[in-house]
Amino acid sequence: MGSLLTAVASWLDARAGNGRWLLRIDDLDTPRVDPDAESEILATLTAHGLYWDGPVARQSDHVAHYHAALAKLAERCFACRCTRRELRGTDRYPGTCRTLSLPWEGNAIRIRSEGRVEFVDRVQRACSPGESTASHRHWGALDDFVVQRRDGFASYHLAVVVDDQAMGVDHVVRGADLIDDTPRQLFLIDALGDARPSYAHVPVIVEDSGVKLSKHNQATAINRRFARRNVGAALTLLGFDPPDENIATILEWAIDHWDIARIPPSPVVQGFTAIS
Ligand SMILES: [Zn+2]
To answer: Could you tell me the residue range of the domain that residue 161 belongs to?
Structure first.
């Protein structure tokens, strides 16, 4: 249901803005990719009336783009041999390997970065200290973060930035649990000389305990037989009052009534009871 909420919001934002809605499968982490997961995702989207434009993109098709981007950033990067254990308890990378000139082979690659990055979010009010709560301007302090993992795969941050650029993405609508990643991704976008997309971070659904609904905490898969009610519930959580109609009519109504300012400017929404 949490994923559906984000999908509905991004689909409506694209449709109401006469944009295209692009679908990308994040399959970079090959050992962990479940072969059945992709067909499940596509079936769930279409059952809920959420059709995408063009072919399905895959991160595994963009590997050459990641290498090209890393080459472009190479002068600002350094190899790091710190283990997860050595970095435990530090929320910022302390710069241990910055000046060691370690070989890239077999090490993680970090990019030198400091200062802070500012951006405006279309949904979330600022939560940074000293900022007006009515403001939608956010900022995040940077540290030297990983752009290529020790195993040679692009980091998540580098991958999504390069993917978005390759696909011509100019609007990102995603869950608010990812808002803290945005400054790092904007730093990479600026460093690569690419155009910044606009961002809208929609609330994530939490259980009454405050824990995010996800497959990590055994949230049940959404039931496609109740697609109409699921779409209605997603719209209600997004701040709309949809008509009791079939899916196509509800979605048409929602395109006509779409106003991103109605989405609660909160990182979470609560009190949802799953229909199963
Ligand atoms: Zn290090």
So the answer is: 59-202
* CATH number of the domain that residue 106 is part of: 3.40.50.620
Distance CA 14, CA 171 (A): 8
What separation in Å is there between the alpha carbon of 158 and the centre of ligand 1?
18
Q: Minimal CA–CA distance to 7: which of 185, 233, 173?
A: 173
Give the model confidence (pLDDT) of 16-64 as tens digits. 999 999 999 988 876 666 778 889 899 999 999 999 999 999 998 999 9
Note the pTM of the prediction, 2 decimals.
0.90
Residues 162, 65 contacting (CB under 8 angstroms): yes
Q: Give the angle 69-142-264 at the CA atoms, nearest 5°.
A: 100
Q: Is residue 29 domain-shared with residue 69, that is, in the same domain? A: no
Report CA(67)–ligand 1 centroid distance (Å).
21
C-alpha 81 – ligand 1 centre gap (Å): 5
Task: Note the pLDDT tens digit of each residue in 134-153.
Answer: 577 888 889 999 999 999 99
Gap from CA of 106 to ligand 1 centroid (Å): 13
Q: Are residues 83 and 195 in the same domain?
A: yes
Ligand 1 centroid–CA 146 distance in Å is 10
For residue 2, which of 196, 153, 182, 220 has the smallest C-alpha distance?
220
- Classify burial at 178, counting beta carbons within 10 Å of its beta carbon; exposed 0-12, middle 13-18, buried 19 or more: middle
- What does the block give as tokens for 13? 């934002």
* Maximum distance among all Cα pairs of the chain, rounded to whole angstroms: 64
Ramachandran angles phi, psi of 119, nearest 5°: -155, 160
Cα–ligand 1 centroid distance for 148 (angstroms): 13
Q: How would you label 109-145 residue by residue, b for 16+ Cβ within 10 Å and e otherwise?
A: bbbbbeeebebebbbbbbeeeeeeeeebebebebbbb
